[in-house]
Design a protein that fits this description.
The structure holds 2 protein chains of 2 kinds. Chain A is an alpha/beta fold. The chains are: A alpha/beta, B mainly alpha.
Chain lengths: ~250, ~250
């Protein structure tokens, strides 16, 4: 269970205090996947950094499975916007890195590693360097790195935004298949309403800055590909659009 | 593009072309200050081990010791300045103040402080190569995208792990490039410093031959000094290929 209570985050820049997140409350049960949508600059990425333990200077409570978030205790997989792969490590070294840092090289579950490679179809790429990969392949490597950690929480910051439409659809499908198998508690940020409906069991709508969740929607169309022209689907799409329109982009 | 040292067939053609041009020009001018290259090469073959080698080894030793000190001091300082703002804040003013000073202008001070012997010569090489290594590594580390750090920070990785896994290997290419640039200047400074307080080193050998109007010997020294430069460049290129394999396809 992920619990956030009365979260407030401030940035200090040149002695000027700016509030990024305002009084945010949320709960996400274990094994759920939540898509966050909202205007640019509304604090979505800041929330992810708080959940990742990267930002520690905040007010309020942020708990993962009952304990205050701490990257030293929790296992948090982070997939940043541009994949965050280390250019000077091979695909295999990149994937191993998180598990290696967390548990040591010898503790890596090689059978699980092989399964992830197979699921994400990157077995043939392990000796390559990131500069030898396409955007879609980089994305899959980044997801594999986070999954090998067997994370308590998987955080993804606009993971598919840099991909072309066809690759994005393909990778979304692969990701969903992988997620269904491993059932990792996941929070992902997206700007694409259709992506949020496809990948989010829950959809959290963010307000403009300082951000907070203004609507948490249970999504009946999670993982559905055939309903995109259906009436109910369009109604949800329209509803999300209306909520976002009510929030001017900052 | 992968560097293949200077083993490329085109490099050899070019080298022979220059020698041929030199030979033609020398025969055409027929002046003692430009002896035919064949005479110089013959002199090197005949006298290298008996006469030139000891000078070449002295020069090479001074350069190598200077470079080792530069790497030992410059790489850690550059990394720490790029990674930790406080260290950068502390050392940057000193760096900006001392970097632009022409290092040759420091020669009298270095000689006053370290005497006329070996130490002063090595210190001069160190001063020439140290600053570009520090500045370039610092800037390169600062340019590593923040996203590369997020997945590692979310694991609770400490400074040591981040430096070891991300920064140090990432800074290696720019350290070697700075060294490559510094070596050219280091050799010219070495030539100058070897004219004081020593009877060993190619600088001394060349100037001594010049004063004795022995042009063949003088050119032999110049050619060997160039070969040392070439040798160091090839060594750095090979080191780069070994330490930075991800750059092979560039």
């Amino acid at each position: 269970m992920i619990e956030i209570k009365n979260l407030n985050v401030y940035y200090e820049n040149q002695n000027k205090k700016t509030q990024a997140i305002s009084n945010l409350n949320a709960r996400l049960p274990r094994g759920e996947i939540c898509a966050i949508i909202g205007p640019s600059g509304s604090g979505k990425s800041t929330l992810l950094k708080v959940l990742a333990g990267i930002i520690r200077n905040y007010e309020g409570e942020v708990r993962i499975h009952g304990k205050t978030v701490d990257p030293k205790i929790h296992r948090i997989g982070f997939v940043p916007q541009n994949y965050g792969l280390i250019e000077w490590k091979t695909v295999e070294q990149n994937i191993f890195l998180s598990a290696k840092l967390k548990d040591g090289r010898k503790q890596i579950d090689t059978a699980f590693y092989e399964r992830i490679l197979e699921k994400l179809n990157i077995k043939d790429l392990i000796k390559r360097y990131p500069n030898q990969l396409s955007g879609g392949q980089r994305q899959r490597v980044s997801i594999a790195r986070a999954l090998l950690l067997k994370p308590d929480l998987l955080l993804m910051d606009e993971p598919f935004s840099a991909l072309d439409a066809l690759t994005r659809e393909a990778i979304q499908e692969v990701f969903l298949a992988v997620w269904r198998e491993f059932q990792v508690t996941t929070i992902l940020i997206t700007h694409d309403i259709r992506e949020a409906i496809y990948l989010g069991k829950k959809i959290a709508v963010f307000s403009s800055a300082p951000g907070t969740i203004i609507k948490m929607i249970e999504n009946p169309f999670f993982g559905e590909t055939d309903l995109k022209l259906g009436e109910a689907y369009n109604a949800l799409n329209g509803r999300l659009r209306e909520i976002l329109k009510g929030e001017p982009s900052s | 593009m992968k560097r293949k040292g200077y083993q490329g067939i085109h490099g050899i053609y070019l080298f022979f072309f220059v020698l041929l041009l030199w030979q033609g020009l020398a025969l055409l001018l027929d002046k003692p200050f430009l002896p035919p290259v064949s005479d110089i090469l013959l002199n090197i073959l005949m006298t290298f081990w008996g006469k030139i080698a000891v000078h070449a080894l002295y020069s090479l030793r001074r350069i190598l010791i200077g470079i080792v000190f530069t790497l030992l001091a410059g790489v850690p300082l550059g990394i720490l300045m790029g990674y930790l703002k406080k260290i950068d804040f502390l050392f940057s003013p000193l760096l900006y103040f001392s970097y632009p000073v022409p290092k040759m202008a420091l020669l009298p001070i270095v000689m006053l402080l370290f005497g006329l012997g070996e130490t002063a010569k090595i210190v001069m090489i160190f001063l020439i190569t140290f600053f570009p290594v520090v500045v370039n590594i610092r800037d390169d580390v600062k340019n590593i995208p923040l996203e590369v750090f997020y997945p590692v920070l979310s694991l609770g990785a400490g400074h040591f792990q981040i430096i070891k896994e991300i920064i140090l290997p990432g800074a290696m290419p720019v350290a070697l490039t700075s060294l490559r640039l510094g070596i050219g200047t280091a050799i010219s400074v070495l030539f100058f410093t070897e004219n004081f307080g020593t009877e060993y080193g190619l600088g001394y050998f060349i100037m001594d031959a010049w004063m004795r109007v022995n042009y063949i010997e003088m050119y032999s020294g110049i050619l060997i000094l160039s070969m040392i430069g070439l040798l160091l460049f090839v060594a750095i290129d090979s080191l780069e290929n070994k330490l930075c394999p991800w750059r092979e396809d560039r």
